Input
Amino acid sequence: MVKQGFFPPSNAPLFFVHYWGPQDRDIRATEEIAKEAEARILEMENVTAVTTFIGQGADRFTLTYAPKSANENYAFFMVRANELENIPAIQSALAGKLTDLDFDASFYTTGVKKALLSIRSLITTTRALLAYHIMTLAKPFSMPVAG
Output
């Protein structure tokens, strides 16, 4: 009888970063943001390689990966770390490196730190939007007085 956990856990030091821009984002704008994101990821300590796919995910190369359909506002980064143990630290550091590239977009990673990066991205975006609204909408006004 075959055990239920037939496929062993992957020990490849890989993780994925996903970028979703606004729905009306042109693929050329997505490409520019992806190039900058790739450069920032490659500069990080313990990162050995990054493969970037713009407009869709990579072909399916393992059973635990499901590729995304073609979409002009999507980019996919396959990141290789020097050691599997370094991936959580790299994922945590990405929050501060990528969110300022596009406040209208969402960057997130797969794995343990996925939620942390998404929350930090949401906080950064919320702060930027709040500052914008305060600067543009908070103007003095006068109310008519009844009487």
The longest strand covers residues 47-54.
